[in-house]
Fold:
Amino acid sequence: MNRQGNLYTFIYSIVLVVLVAALLSIIAMWLQPTQNENIENEKRQKILSSINISSTREESKALFEKYIINQFVVNSKGDTIKDENAFTLDLAVEAQKPCEEKLMPVFVANIDGAVKYILPVYGKGLWGPIWGYISMNEDKNSIYGAVFDHKGETPGLGAEIATPAFSNQFDGKTVFENGEMVAIEVEKGHGHTGTHEVDGISGGTITSKGVENMLKTYLNCYESFLKK
Structure:
C-alpha cells in the first residue's frame, strides 16, 4: 500500500482513533472503582461534618461506621420505606418529585450518647445545584450542625455557602414555632439573631435564597418524620 496515498492515511487515522479510544476506555474502567470510592468518602465527610466531626477521605469510612448507628429512607408521611438504601439514594432525582412522592434519607448518629438526625437536602442556586446536610438534635426541632456545597456558584460570592462562616450560623436555630414548621430564613444583612433566621451571603443573594428555598422545601417534606 502506498504510504503517501489517501487510503493509507485514512486507514491509519481510523486505527489510531480506535486504539486511543480503547486505551481510554480501559483506563476509565480501571479507575472507576477508585473514583466511586472517592465520591462515597467525600459524601461521608459531608455527613460527618454536619455533626461537627472532621475527617480525611482516608478515615471517613471508619468514622462514619463509628458515629452513624442507623440509616433509612422515609416518605412525606414519615413512614420508613423498606428496601431503599439511604446512602445511595439519588437526591438529584428525588428533588424533581413533588413532596408526596419524594423518598428522603435519614442518618442517625450517636454523639457521646446523644442521638442526632441528619437530613440531606437538595436544591438550586444561581448557576446549578446546591445541596447539604442538616443535623437535628433529639428534639427534632433544634439544629445541631449544618454543611452545604454547590456545583458551580461564584467564588467569593455564592460559593461562600460551603464555608464554616455561613454554615455555623445554623447551630442552635429551630425549625418549628408553636408546633408549626417555619424552617430557616436566609436574609441579606447582619445581625439576624432570631431563632429561625441566619445572615445571607453578601453579593450572593440568589444563592442564599436558594438555600432558604431548599431548606423550606425539604423540611416541610420531613415535617411528619420530625413530629413523630
Observations:
- The longest strand covers residues 114-124.
- The beta strands are 68-74, 80-81, 104-111, 114-124, 129-136, 143-150, 176-177, 180-181, 185-187, 197-199.
- Residues 68-227 form one domain.
